[in-house]
Amino acid sequence: AKNKSAVYAGDNIRPATRVLWIIFDELDYQAAFAARPSSTELPELDRLRDESIAAINAYPPARWTMRSIPALVTGRLVADAQPSSYNELMIKFDGASESVGWSAQPNVFSRAREIGGAAAVVGWYHPYCRVIGGDLTRCSFTVVGNEMDTRGQRVSRSMLEHFRMVGAAAQVIRQVLPKSLKSDKGWEFDYVEGLKRIAQESAAAAADRALSLVMVHFPAPHWPCMYDRRKDDFTFEGGCNYFDNLELVDRTFGDLRRSMERAGLWEDTVVLVSSDHWWRTE
Predict the structure, then answer these.
(1) Is 216 exposed, middle or buried (0-12, 13-18, 19+ CB in 10 A)?
(2) How far apart are alpha carbons 55 and 167 in whole angstroms?
(3) d(Cα 189, Cα 234) in Å, to the nearest integer?
(4) From CA 265, how far away is CA 58, in angstroms rounded?
(5) What pTM does this model have?
(6) Please, what is the Cα angle at 139 between 133 and 143, to 5 degrees?
(7) Which of 3, 101, 227, 253 is a good FRET partner for 155, with 20 to 30 A between their CA atoms?
(8) pLDDT value at position 189?
(9) How far is CA 98 from CA 94, 157, 256, in A?
(10) Quick one: which H or E segment has residue 90?
């Protein structure tokens, strides 16, 4: 988090009035900072760490995004999470005997609204707009075909989403496919377009002075890898890895920072960079 709880303007001190919370999915402290390979460069994150408070012993609330995000948003440990419908996730808080709907739980966004703020989410994986959209002023999410996206849909849409899920697994065997079966306009193209869309919408929300709390849940550095750090561009050819995705994270954060600086909002914003879980190398 930026080490700025106040902004100095002449002889006056005014509190920072906005919060940008960026969750980079599967961002791992050990890989990104403590044991980063010399071939990986993260100048934007290094710059932020140098001017901020870094919590090197912070630990994610769960191993999986399904549980971790609701825990982070509600501020309570989640022992289990199961989709129950197209727009609801049933969560069991640690120590509780029964599950409750995520949509009905107080959270950081409902608290922001209670004190007069406007909140926004730009994310992926969880269908935020359908589940907690009532607590948000602005919301955008990218479908990835998890169980919540297939419940309650027509057969054709459900089949499409399952194929998108299978497509992600196909990256593992992509190199052994005949050339005739490879396509630059397949699932990889859709995934990259989704990444770009999330980045654009995140920059727009971060630079919107009408929003007092913005949470961005960005897919990288989570697998699959679609970025070539040597070319500084997206790739459909395979061969990249987690550290390529780390440099995509760095580039994305730099773009967010510059969009806020152009809008004159960087100095008035508390910025928190965190993760939902560690790098699951298996």
Answers:
(1) buried
(2) 36
(3) 10
(4) 27
(5) 0.84
(6) 95
(7) 101
(8) 80
(9) 10, 32, 40
(10) strand 88-93
Contact criterion met (CB below 8 Å) for 125 and 144: yes
- Contact present, 72 and 25 (Cβ < 8 Å): no
Distance (Å, rounded) from C-alpha 94 to C-alpha 162? 31
Bridge partners (DSSP) of residue 90 are: 82, 101
Helices 242-262 and 43-50: crossing angle, nearest 10°? Answer: 60
Give the torsion through C-alpha atoms of 208, 140, 26, 23, to 10 deg.
30
pLDDT in tens, 160-205: 554 454 454 444 434 444 444 444 556 788 889 989 999 999 999 9
> Which pLDDT value is given to residue 126?
94
Which residue blocks in the chain are alpha helix, DSSP H? 29, 43-50, 65-74, 108-114, 128-131, 147-150, 155-169, 187-206, 242-262
- Structure tokens given for 180: 């005739």
**Helix/strand/coil for 207:** coil
DSSP string, 9-68: ETTEEEE--EEEEEEETT--HIIIIIT--TT---HHHHHHHHTB---TT---S-SSHHHH
What's the confidence (pLDDT) of residue 148? 53
Q: From the centroid of its chain, how far is CA 85?
A: 22
The CA distance from 113 to 104, in Å, is 15
User: According to the model, what pLDDT value does residue 265 have?
Assistant: 95
Q: Strand, helix or coil at 193?
A: helix
